[in-house]
Amino acid sequence: MDGGFVFAFIGFIGMSSGLVYYFFKKIWKFTRLELFTLRHIRVRFNRITRQVYIQRPSYCGGLLVLEWQQMQWPAAYGKQDTSTIGLRNIITWSPEHTGLPYFYFQAIGKRSEKLGDLPNEAEFIRRYMEYGPDSVPEPKVSSLFPWPLPCFYPMFEATGKNWGKWMTILAFPAVASIGVGYWLSQLLCWQPRWPQDIEDAGLAGKPRPKTTTLDDYSPEIQERLLANADRWEIKLADKPKVRKKRVVKDKPDTID
Predict the structure, then answer these.
(1) Cα angle vertex 124, ends 246, 142, to 5°?
(2) In the chain, what is the straight-line distance between the N-terminal and C-terminal CA atoms, in Å?
(3) Helices 172-187 and 163-170: angle between axes, nearest 10 degrees
(4) What 3-state class would DSSP assign to 180?
(5) What is the pLDDT tens value at each position of the chain, 256 positions in all?
(6) 64 CB contacts (<8 Å, ≥6 apart)?
(7) Which of 44, 45, 67, 134 has the fewest CB atoms within 10 Å distance of its CB?
(8) CA 171 → CA 58, 78, 157, 158, 164, distances in Å?
(9) How many CA atoms lie within 13 Å of 61's alpha carbon, on the beta-carbon side?
(10) Contact 87, 75 (CB under 8 A)
């Protein structure tokens, strides 16, 4: 066998092994945020247990169980102006209410296209939680299958009927590459499933899921979380404050 071929083959194997090692050592932790992971971060509102369930990958904190009564809507019920157009609704939980040594927020829903989209969406969820499904119109249910066309929707969200949409069309080659990449990312991920205790939550005879506390994390993660606890003025001996039941007027009177 030719010595040059053997040398080249060994060099190829060595370089390939080095690249694979470097990928899993340095790059994999970033790649798995988009590939080979959960397809979505899902949020479920349970009006029977009065809880909110947030499903995240295990390396991003895992399942989070929080109280509906402690949740806040800073964007929906805050000041409404044109700067909120193009944003998503944000739901938040403060450490002073949850007892957790960190502030948590989660973006939900679609980007707003006009004033009123954020409070309308928040009002839809609030009425469902407070008064039941009969108090709101039946929502549209989208497919969970990763069809290619919806992967292009985010690029056209919040552009409205102005120059923004024309700019998106003019930049179609870049938009197409981003959309195709997003679709491939969806195909290489899987649709998350709720744990059985969350699926059964609210059913007759089934226990209420335990609210997430600091003890649910490993000792190593607890140490890291508590390293910044002083910023939130949280102490281990502190107990979460119980907020009074929110009374929000039924406004807007109609949901667009």
Answers:
(1) 140
(2) 76
(3) 80
(4) helix
(5) 566 777 777 888 888 888 888 888 887 777 777 777 888 889 999 999 999 999 998 888 899 999 999 999 987 776 667 777 878 899 999 998 898 989 999 999 888 888 888 999 999 999 999 999 999 998 888 778 888 888 777 766 645 555 566 766 777 777 788 888 888 888 888 888 899 999 999 999 999 999 999 999 999 989 888 887 777 665 554 444 544 545 445 444 444 4
(6) 53, 54, 55, 56, 104, 212
(7) 134
(8) 37, 34, 15, 16, 11
(9) 16
(10) yes
Q: What share of the chain is helix, strand, coil (3-state, %, to 5)?
A: 45, 10, 45
What are 210's two structure tokens?
């335990």
CA distance 4 to 29: 37
Buried b (16+ CB within 10 A) or exposed e, 118-145: bbbbbbbbbbbbeeeeeebeeeeeeeee
- Alpha-carbon distance of 169 to 164, in angstroms, equals 9
CA–CA distance, 165 with 160 (Å, rounded to integer): 7
Question: pTM value?
Answer: 0.76
Count Cα atoms within 13 angstroms, Cβ side, for 127. 20
Angle in degrees, CA 195, 197, 200, rounded to 5: 110
The dihedrals phi and psi of 72, each to the nearest 5 degrees, come to: -130, 155
Query: Which amino acid is it at 167?
Result: M
- 66: its two tokens: 């929080």
Q: Where are the beta strands (DSSP E) in the chain?
A: 42-46, 51-55, 64-67, 89-93, 104-108
3 state DSSP class of 188: coil
Q: What's the distance, CA 70 to chain centroid?
A: 18
